[in-house]
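Just scan this pair:

***
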Amino acid sequence: MLEHTLSEEEHSQIVQTIEMFEVITQTQPDDYQSLEILKEAYQKVGRAEDSLKTSRRLAEAYFSAGSYTLAMQECEVILLKEPNAPEILAMLGDIETRLQAAGQTIAASGSKHGLIATPTSGGVNGLTHNGTHEGGLVDLQQGRGGLHPQDRGDDHLAKFLVMQQLFTEDAVTKAVETTKHLNKDLSGQALAASLLDKICRQDTDKLDAVLSGLIDRTKFAYVPLEYYDVDRQIARMLPDHLTLGRLYVPFDLISRTIMVACCNPFDAAGREAVQQSLDYTVTWYLARPGAIIKCLQDIYRLESRA
């Protein structure tokens, strides 16, 4: 049952959201954050059957990520509607067996928000179910207490680019110096510079390779922001120093979840500031820096920056 009757504009916006996240979840079937959003969007417009199908996919995504508590909860929701669903009953049995075999250590070490963060071979993810990314992409030597608001994560991104052999160390160093110089004294409605934008320039193939590597490393979903009709009111829910100053674009809002696009997922200080500025669950997406810059220019009616 719908919480309230949707206006034509609200219905149209949710339908657009559904279309976008159907594409995202087709290309990234294990992206549980996008599946959560898609499931709720289906519920909002009364598409109960599609919502149930998405619940099944969500349970599988949670299970694949090792988030057994959430997978179990999703299975229980499905069984309320289909008590004898064989594959769901089998998944529940498998979950219980795994938890027992692990001596409940997985559940005990999980996030207090309910999502068990599974470390990857590439580094730390540190995702929590309330949508915040607990500074997880900061080097292990630098805990959350070491975050500084002036740290934009460019040094961490630079290390990633060099370690992945995407660019030479000399090229990365020059690009970092240029970006830091451009971002040194931002004020008013000055638009920040992006390290990725500077180092990739017009090389689409290089940018695609970088984005692919970042998605693999961070597990952020990708959003083709250049094709998204961003609501100006949603985009301006963040202060200018986070949108223009950190290149963040809040591009959609469903219930208590706000979706934010970024082009540097290593900016842990900025992501923490976003969470503190919003009384919403925040889910993060990776977008092309050029698309983010163009979007912000349109929203704030800024002239193109050379």
